[in-house]
Amino acid sequence: MVEHAILSASSAHRWLTCPPLPQLERFFENKTTEVAHEGTVAHSLAEYKVRKLIGEKTRKPKSKFIDDDMEQHTDDYASYINELLQSIKLTTPDPIVLIEQRLDFSNYVPDGFGTGDCLIIADKTLYIIDLKYGRGVLVDAEDNPQMMLYALGALNIFDALYDIEEVEMTIFQPRKYNISTSVKTVNELKEWADSELKEKAELAFKGEGVVKYGPWCQFSNCNAVLRARKDYHDKLTRFQLCSPHLLTDLELEEVLEHVDDLVKWATEVKEYATKVTIETDKEWSKFKLVEGRSVRKFSDDKKVEEVCKANGYTDIYRNSLITLTDMEKLMGKEEFNTLLGNLVYKPEGKPTLVPRSDKRKELVLHNVKQEFGGKNNVK
Predict the structure, then answer these.
(1) For 41, which of 4, 63, 108, 117 could close a Cys bridge (C-beta 3.0–4.6 Å)?
(2) Cβ atoms of residues 212 and 229 within 8 Å
(3) What pLDDT does residue 117 have?
């Protein structure tokens, strides 16, 4: 059985910002999604390749999730570690490499521990490399609490044995083409632990403190029913006025800040209420469970074909190419690029409003108008 910490390193950003969440989340199911399974397999494959790289005997994992893309991404990860090792060996001939190292930081966080994907100990520098296989959220290493907790855990083991002065922490996120590195001195890490980490970890372990709603809550398993989320969106009620006056630009921007999460929240609340109804036979005063709409499908395509042909209907198929993704899997990435690379293009996405913090390049308004035929056609 896999052991899980209540205050895990991977969820540190969440419980440092909203200390009560870990104790609240214990009352909700932790769903294991296909994406999570895929990530676990990717880490196992990456571990195999790095162990093989440093000369350890190991066995390659098998899984339906392993495809050409995963092979390529984990190859890139192993190559990055190899290049880093070769660079380190120029000054430190015999660096120590540790894979899937358990890291205990319970002297700062109650019962706190985690697992470091790859640690390299060289003269005066400790290197921590963490593979992130997700493609959804870009992860930055700068002031990343998960990486800083790993660093503290590693220092607990090795600081007395080696003269470590600084820790270089790297996020390797191949599906987002992201390699992010942050360097902190040992003193900076311990100062953060003493001045901020300890106090918030104690609050989180006790389930005390204040829940402040924000992006850090998105992966919480109780996010659908967080009161702080409702309070956050309640700000919009002041715009529901029986008035002929229009909203100002500033008011529109305030509404836009809420739109994406408001839509997502509405969906999550409905899914949660449906799940509770099914699992507990709950009855709601204003709602009931019904069969949802569905699309008609053939139960047996082969029998449909036989019946149609027997009755003179032969033109029952439409020829079309398989999808680009399926074609790439069929040929393999290298041959696909060789044969069809010059026939592939990526159309421009439809203009959309996002927060200024989004890393995508801002569109030039003149070009947008030309592309979409004038301002009246931009919707």
Answers:
(1) 63
(2) no
(3) 96
